[in-house]
Amino acid sequence: MQPIISIKGLTKTYEGGFQALKEVSLDINRGEIFGLLGPNGAGKTTLINIVCGIVTKTTGSVTVDGFDIVDDYRQTRSRIGLVPQELPTETFETPWNVARFSRGLFGKPENPGHIEKVLKSLSLWEKRNEKIMMLSGGMKRRVLIAKALAHEPEILFLDEPTAGVDVELRQDMWSVVRSLRESGVTVILTTHYIEEAEQLADRVGVINHGKIILVEEKNRLMREFGKKQLVLQLTDCLAVVPPELDDYELELSESGCELTYHYDTKQDHTGITALLAALRTAGIKFNDLSTSQSSLEEIFVGLVNQEA
């Protein structure tokens, strides 16, 4: 299947010589939620703005649904909805008027039914005639999404969509994103909240210093790069880890009542059996043990640190 967005050898160098993007190549599949992760200044927003036609590329090519973003600007832009980080500036306007006006900008005919559907899906219908300046930060974020969806785009870019939104509203926004994907919209999500990508994304791309350092299916990424940890609840708390256990690089909790052992799930031998035998030899007893998988955040931090 042809990707809905295809980026080849994309670079961007600003006046003064700063290179924001360095030979970025990336394909986005139709109908997926793609999580683009990276620290501040990594190039996420520059990449999005080039695809959306806001920033001019230096070299390379970008196609959207087979159309070139330069040669076929109107075709590509009409297929894209963008939800930027900034909150609305039309503070004296209403959600209804903002969405209606945005649809008109793309030359779409009036369709009050579609605007109503969008506003209801975002829980904005009851607020449709209120001034945006009177809405909460979370509701203003929803207005941005409504504005981006007004012209029925096939692709939606969400640039830090839940920044400054409380936990409850963030959960609501996640539901909105999932429903958009179910309706056939391709979603590209940049976020500082790693759990957001962990909850939503089908695939994850990591960008750092203007370069894509990894693109992988989220579940496979967590399987291959994730490590597990074994946590032992000790019967008797320790002041220090005995030196005969140094080879296992155990972490002792501040209370001295927990030992944590990290192991690689891809290794043939985890070392757990040997560890338990060594604990018995050292006379250390435990009441309970549990295991957990590395989070996507831990994997992300590790990848970025490797490239630093």
Structure summary:
By secondary structure, the protein is an alpha/beta fold.
Protein architecture, described:
The chain has helices at 44-51, 73-78, 95-105, 112-121, 137-149, 167-182, 194-200, 218-225, 272-281, 296-307; strands at residues 5-13, 19-28, 33-37, 59-64, 67-68, 80-83, 155-159, 186-190, 203-208, 211-217, 227-234, 251-252, 258-264, 286-293. With 308 residues, the chain is an alpha/beta fold. The strands form three sheets. A six-stranded mixed beta sheet has the order 6-7-8-3-9-10, sandwiched between helices. Strands 2-1-4-5 form a four-stranded antiparallel beta sheet. The chain has a four-stranded antiparallel beta sheet with strand order 12-13-11-14. Strand 7, helix 6 (167-182) and strand 8 (186-190) form a beta-alpha-beta unit. The longest helix has 16 residues, at 167-182. The radius of gyration is 24 Å and the shape is elongated.
Structure keywords:
elongated, six-stranded mixed beta sheet, 2 domains, 308 residues, four-stranded antiparallel beta sheet, Rossmann fold, alpha/beta, Alpha-Beta Plaits, 33% helix
Number of strands: 14
Q: What is the count of helical runs?
A: 10
CATH architecture of the largest domain: 3-Layer(aba) Sandwich
Q: What general outline do the C-alpha atoms trace?
A: elongated
> Which structural category fits the helices and strands?
alpha/beta
How much of the sequence lies in strands comes to 25-35%
State the helical fraction.
Answer: 25-40%
CATH superfamily of the largest domain: P-loop containing nucleotide triphosphate hydrolases
Q: Please write the CATH class name of the largest domain.
A: Alpha Beta
- The main sheet orders its strands as 6-7-8-3-9-10
